[in-house]
Amino acid sequence: MPRVLIVGASLGGLRAAEALRDAGFHGAISSVGAEAHPPYNRPPLSKDVLLGNATSDGVLAELAFPRKARLGEIDWRLGMSVAAVDLAQGEARLADGSRIHFDALIVATGLRPRRLQLTGATADRFVLRTLPDALALRARLVPGARIAIIGGGFIGCEVAASARRRGCATTVIEPLIVPMQRALGQEFGAAMQALHEAAGIRFRTGRQVTGFEVDVSDRLHAVRLDDDSLVEADLAVEAVGSQPNTEWLAGNGFDLDDGILCDHRMAAIGHDRVAAVGDVARFPCLLFDDVPRRVEHWSIPGLTARRAAGHVARQLGVAVPDAPFAPLPTFWSDQLGLRIQCAGLPGLADRVGLLSGSLGPDSMRRDGAVMGYWRKDRQVGVAAIGVAPQRFINFQADLVRALQNCSL
Ligand SMILES: Cc1cc2nc3c(=O)[nH]c(=O)nc-3n(C[C@H](O)[C@H](O)[C@H](O)COP(=O)(O)OP(=O)(O)OC[C@H]3O[C@@H](n4cnc5c(N)ncnc54)[C@H](O)[C@@H]3O)c2cc1C
């Protein structure tokens, strides 16, 4: 009986197992995941989990994905990482030295937070990717605590909003001109900064962190910036991006430059029996162009898992019909009681413009606002704040039509 090994037991790994069964694969599936917990949903970690008081078990009861009956028998190995694979032998070596033989491999190992290459303040520096990360950070979000959030991307801004709601004195330090600039552009980012400032969150933009100032016990008292100014802080959150978990794939001829390079079937280049899904996969989004990119949004693991599972099942002799694959990246973010929704790849744009509403803090709260993003006069993205999902779907449909009707 053929065996598919899925490495990484989070959203992408779980969806890949489900999709293999949906594709008619009845062989063996082994799922190895480094986290001890069953697959759970990450987005609430920076929102509801930081704002709530639930215990680890309580949070898991809320966030664990339901295990669907159609999964059937799965050989779960949780709390265990794969240390290395040998594709020629079809064998994976686990951290405890045991081995799993496989006929096909699905890579679903996602990302881990990038760390600042600075020393000091070890006990007061936090990252946010996992449930234990969230619970450790939440324990320090007490009223009056001074928190420096390094990085004003989505996770940094969501943590800032949650920390402020818990009564912390919150400062976001961001090297670009405005927060969330790369994803949403300067106009939308500036409007978001104003919204955060109105809630009492301070910003130091255009600045990098150069050091952590500590006392004799190595406890943090300030973060030093590149203009030599200090931001007083009891704790710091490093929200400076992520790096793909691909070291375990080394030595097999994969392109691991930024995640694992895949083709439009989600097959690893040069290895038809290896596919990748979710945040770790670098693949071409054909709705835009044929440039491979990683897309770190919740919608992508599910979409790529279906594609990858179909491909892998076909490689193992299951007759699975092929279909065109041109996924539209979408994501959302909840900050300060407002929902941001985004579709497409606004980061590609060379021009932005309002499609509806205006970007003042009051009008965003009252009527919402929708921004369009164009590259060479072709729409490549749409982002909205304070707009009902049913209304946003219409803007998203316009975007898909625009993308289908002309190429970059
Ligand atoms: C705090 C936070 C908030 C977010 N909020 C949003 C949001 O609001 N909207 C949105 O669209 N997206 C959001 N995201 C992104 C979304 O959660 C991710 O896109 C999604 O989790 C990716 O799933 P994945 O399965 O590809 O990777 P991951 O969820 O990273 O899972 C990879 C798994 O592989 C395991 N692993 C790694 N290496 C090994 C190994 N060698 N052996 C075995 N296992 C291994 C890891 O431990 C992990 O469990 C958020 C992410 C975070 C962290």
UniProtKB/TrEMBL annotation:
One of its GO terms (molecular function) is oxidoreductase activity, acting on NAD(P)H. Pfam families: Pyr_redox_2 (PF07992). Coiled coil: none annotated. Keywords: FAD, Flavoprotein, Oxidoreductase. One of its GO terms (cellular component) is cytoplasm. Residues 3-295 form the FAD/NAD(P)-binding domain. SUPFAM superfamilies: FAD/NAD(P)-binding domain, FAD/NAD-linked reductases, dimerisation (C-terminal) domain. Its cofactor is FAD. The keyword Flavoprotein applies. Signal peptide: none annotated. It comes from the Bacteria. This is NADPH-dependent 2,4-dienoyl-CoA reductase/sulfur reductase-like enzyme. It comes from Dongia mobilis. The lineage of its organism: Bacteria, Pseudomonadati, Pseudomonadota, Alphaproteobacteria, Rhodospirillales.
